[in-house]
Fold these 3 entries.
Entry 1:
Amino acid sequence: MGERVRAGVKPRALVGVAVAVVACAAAASASIASPKHGGDGLTRTVVFRRDGRASAEALHTKTPIKHLVVLFQENVPFDHYFGTYPYALNPPGEPRFVPAPGTPSVNGYTDALLNDNPNLANPKRLDRTDGNVCGSNHSYLPEQEAFDHGLMDEFVQFTGSHAAGCDGTHGMDYYDGNTITALWNYAQHYSLNDNSFGTTFGPSHIGAINLVSGNNHGAITSGPTSNVIDGTQIGNVEPTYDDCPASALNIHFTGRNIGNLLNDGGVSWGFFSGGFVATSRNPDGTPVCGESHVTATGQVGLDYDSGNEPFQYYQSTSNQLHLPPTSVAAIGHDDQANHQYDLSDFWAAADAGNLPAVSFLKAPGYEQGGIGPSGPLLEQQYIVGLINHLEQLPSWNSTAVVIMYDDSDGGYDHVMPPILNDSQTADDALTGPGQCGTHTPILGGYQGRCGYGPRLPLLIVSPWARVNYVDHTLTDQTSIIHFIEDNWLGGERIGDGSYDALSGPLTGMFDFSGRHRAPKLFLDPQTGEPAGM
């Protein structure tokens, strides 16, 4: 576990939660019916609480899913976590994983890929003592160069870390079910997709933008930066509409995102970030987000990174001053927080019976699974704690948790993605210098959006998930947008070249027939093994 360190004053306490819980419950128990127009042009009857806000449970949905919880983690290619699934080495002293009879295989490592890999090094198994300290280069251009026309053979040269004390072959390596035990158990009992990709190439902030809009074009910068090319963001730049801290070099977008569509449809939603709460304020009122942690390796990292909070790039959905919600009952609805919250607000709402219809969750930095102060065991503690808690709520019967990742960290995966959208800029190199294909980009003609990018893990944990199932449907980060649009908004799309127009569905990972329900699975957060609750 990480030891918590705070800068400035203590975070805002959840004052008056008990009162707000009672108020929320009373509001939910008394409701009135009102017509609501969906994105498909149809008129439906929607149940509103006494305070005038629509109940997530009462909203019309295409599927039985009334609550979607999207956990967006950091920097993991598919093979890094699932390359040998469902077979683990099971050495003495490590948690064991033995697949159930009939467990399906994935498009993972073959003997040739493990022992005669076309890269300069073979993948090596990492155990529970091996952290991800160095990381790899996951920039837009080097990732394309590593893919080498689809040969997938130049990762060491182009994305391997060259930092002092780092092994450039580390990005080739992988964990198995003795370390990624919880995720393998979730795959065993629910659904895993082995054909899901980053929407485009590029690092974390690009993945975050693609998650909520599928549009990283139209970037407006505060100054010159090589991370924006031909009007498209291709690298990490902090958002304009976030003062925690304010950044002299920043960018923003003026287009629409899924939050705008949810607001138009009267659907409750929120983005909940670890460390979002202001621990103090400067004399001018701007926030200080000082939550940080020291891990077992002695590394210190801030819990919050504004570039991982994609709605802060859009003025329409930003909470620039990190203002708290006005009440627990208001979480997920319009107020001064503008749908942007701390993770503590998520649990305040969930435990009060006010879980929003759509919740995006970003773990604090030390539990995101990426490089530096995090790692797979700290990530496991967070994910297991989240799902164990959600499974004990009445809302679980209509909930789906999606576990997915923002980028590959430049690490090795052996699968070349289909390229659905070409690009020709100075930072493209997938099929030749300055080229990711030779055709004009089909999505609005916008350059700098070569995609799909690297293959990433995608899991669904839900009573409605298929059990012990591997889905091969082609999906990407915007498949989340696609599901939200279909489930709540009548199939409305963002438009303006958003990748949601191309994205594959998540429905192959569900069984909505009603014949089978996936039972609850409680895990031990330390070992990832099944545990009684």
Entry 2:
Amino acid sequence: MIINMRLSIIVCCTILFFTACKDTFLNEEPVGELTESQIQDSTNVEGLVTSAYSVLNGQFDNASNAYNSPASNWSFGDVVSDDAYKGGGGTGDQNNIHQMEIFNDNSTTKDIERKWLALYEGIRRANEAIKELQTSNDISQHLKDERIAEMHFLRGHFFFELKKIYNRIPWIDASATKPEDYVVANDQYTSDELWDKIAEEFNQASQMLPDEQKDPGRPTRLAARAYMCKVYIFQGKWQKASDLADEVISSNKYHLMNNFRDVFLPENDNGPEIIFAVQHSINDGSPNNYNGSIGDRLAAPGGPYYPQYGFHRPSQDLINAFHTNINGLPVNDHNDITLSDNVDPRLDHTVARPGIPYLDLGIKYDQSWARDLATYGPYSPKKRMVSAKSDHYLKVWPYVNDLNYYVIRYADVLLWKAEAAIQLGDLETGRQFINKIRERAKNSKTVKTLDGSQDAAPYLIDTYNQPFPSKQEAFQALHIERRLEFAQEGHRFFDLVRWGIADQVMNAFIQREQDKRQYLRGAHFEKGKNEFFPIPQSQIDLSQGKIKQNPKYN
């Protein structure tokens, strides 16, 4: 079942939206309603392709509430994890996300329905583009093959997101032509069969995608191989994942940037560390600047330079995770850190802490910036915020920026390689690849005091200089490293679920934090239920019973 039964196959919304991307091919203005013969014209077929890309940022209906279907998954991946609180003006502000945070969401929760609709709209558009590309006679075979490969890649991405969020999903491909073809059961394939079909999307894409793209918003062959690696990581096919990680690494196409902070500067978008990203743009002539980071606009931290939306607030537990010992290694004791404690330098590039300078604004972050301090504590987002002094930040409504959202970066591949190696019993290779990430953090520029004379905090980090004594300890190091490296990037919850430890971690987190965050009292993660979100009730109803609800949801 898909998109509120909006099934006019050719025309529909393929051409109603401006794109979500800054690159030239993605800034083309959409065309109007077309006949079948007109749509097969090369320019108009390219418009269909562009239309599929335009859904990547979660914006699909010309509204400003893409924060309910964000590409970054800040609510689906961070707020429901131990890394972040919802934030905002108390639990009633975007109460739908609050219900997700305390694991009290249901099949009518706005975000759960809107995310489903956005992702299936992307699939629908990719399918329509594939069908028209296959029948068009106005495009060279070489270009046709490339564009079809791009659509397989995008379709794989949308299905991957659906699978990790909802688990049991209907599979709808380009063979769907009639309205009834879209009414599909969500139990026609097993979980492994779905993962295999998603992997095959990226495999097909990799057969025809080029090694280089003139437009950086388009995926390359290696991007497809990297995404296929990610599918195998989620599926637990460790040797296949390891082999694909090796392929990406040995290509020497990507490398870690020298400084951790530089990765998140918009001027470095599509740089050597970025394998695939959702492209954003502002001031591009599109209405309302919805091509910017519209899904993340509620993260604005307040203070003298930003609106005080105050969502996506870092948790105390996340702050504590950056504590290091005298050897520069993670402490991981969950105790609240003090100003004199050693910390991983990535901490103050990732979150805003009172007394630490905020970006390049020449001012220290103050807890007074934090909206509803009593409910959500003093910390605010920082990693993916853009300086208010930058031309890449829009200083008027909707207060978005054009920093891309990184779906896969090279650090992902290095840690997937480490994880696969550990699972296969090669602890030493796992240690070496974890150390590559820590080495970059160790050698990165640190946050300085306002006068630049010294570090803003006692930063200390080092690599693991001794072999891991056991597989369990190797995994612990891997788990911590992914948390520190990718904090506030929307991945944490999905990592906990695929590791099979979400119930342990989240219930321990709730127990530790409920005295600080009283709204967590009574919250509970139910194993066998809360690993996935409920199927939207509207889609179950429209499917006439073909779509079944996930276990334990009413």
Entry 3:
Amino acid sequence: MSVSVLYRLRPLAVAAHVFDVTLTVSQPAKKGQVFRLPVWIPGSYMIREFARHIVTIKAQAGGKPVALCKLDKQSWQADPVEGPLVLNYQVYAYDLSVRGAYLDQQRGFFNGTSVFLSVDGYEQSPCDVVIERPRGKDFHDWRLATSLTSRDDAKDLEAQHGFGRYRAQSYDELIDHPVEMGRFEQVEFKACGVPHRFVVSGRFNADLKRLARDVKRICEWHIKLFGQPAPFDRYVFMLFVGAEIYGGLEHRSSTALMAERADLPARDVEGISDGYLRLLGLISHEYFHSWNVKRIKPAAFVPYDLTQENYTRLLWAFEGVTSYYDDLALLRCGLIDAPRYLGLLAQTFSMVERANGRNKQTLEDSSFDAWIKYYRQDENSPNSQVSYYTKGALVALALDLLIRRQSHQSASLDDVMRALWTRWRQTQNGVAEDEWEHLAGEVTGLNLQPFFESALRSTEVLPLVELLASQGIKLEFTAAQNGADRGGFYADAQPVSIALGFGAKGASDALGVKLVHVHDGGAAQTAGLSAGDVVVALDGLRVSQPDQLSACLCAGRNVAVHAFRRDELMTFDLTPAPASADTCRLSPLGGAPGAWPMV
């Protein structure tokens, strides 16, 4: 008789943000069944301790209580029993992110890593999950969206608005299909023949038909890049919109997204706003992950060990390369033109240049240290870290241009990505730590090792001035013109004079301007200021906006800075210094442009 594993999940107390989960194991282990909850979620490389949200947990068999012993922070063992073992537990769900679980009167959302305990020894066994609607008349119109495979008849599922019984072939599959429930709107489309569903929850007023048309173009470009058929037979986008939120997390046939409601496309408005462009880039990024990290992945992730950190030095290849292709796809599918794309690229250059950590941490070390650094940003992070997303994207750009130049335009990074996909389809093996580099050399027939040594294992400057020049593009850095200047593409680029800089990044505070980051060697650090200080006045005059920090600076004249450090008012003597040339300007060079970035 085969073992059956059944989960039943229902929103128990919506106002208290609690999901109730019942887990039934037909044949528990004879020595006592062990249950575990992951400590991290694939795609987000930090130990998150999801078990801390379990409020109560108990077991019973045959209607009688069964003792549970907690083995460690995430594991429980039940006493040996005959027959089915039933575990019941409640999960507190108020994490408004794409990584955890959330429940209130408007919506519910969860990743399986937050709510489904694994059954030790049966992780490879099929399991069913029944997801119920919250009880009460206030929730009669709630619907459910997920890419899990339904076990209910299609008509029954539709009648239940998506609530019902689903099947996963393993625990790994179970936790890789997030669930959205509540009152949402949706649009559907097909990309290369594959059904796609786009669910949007939260309060908004937007043109979802246009969103579907634009996203369809993105999806078809990605599918065609790697080659049909797509690696899934259906796909679900789950987007929650609100205020001051942003993020995404990839899954094997779906993605969870969060964005500003204003980023959605407005009705009866042509063109693509900066907010909508940012949303399309996020969608493109997570969709590209369907190939690059959900299938093609580091060997260190095969299989995932969700009880501890899984170290790899390859995150630059999976997040950085994906970050290169996300905006590039918007250009190549025709949603934006080349100047708009190059403007986005210039902003990536600026983000990397503005973090002095690029001179201290290598890209491989950034990948390896993601567990303790990237997801735990603090006031000193820009001075000590480099992002495997942004610098990884620039390394991918440099590699693409290098391959194109050395192969006389007969090869590109596209060929490397397709080769990685072909290899995965043949073997489904993970990528060893040195295998990505070797495969790139084999596919292109080029000696790329000197480039990888410099780009990945040193802090040397990437040769992008020369490489972009080969495509007819000039790269230079100047001082920012104002606090909103993130760099860009300028057809008529004019030199910008170097202004004076305060040497810190500030944010508005009730008292004045709070210093969020103080840059290494800058005027603020030299004067003795620290991150967390709240500047209230310069030369006795009140300040309230970050731009005021630099606006009052004059060459040859020191400034008295009055600031609170905790509850103590302090005075600092600041000597203005030239502002850092950390803002990227891309502009056309004379002569015929290269084929990149259009093809």
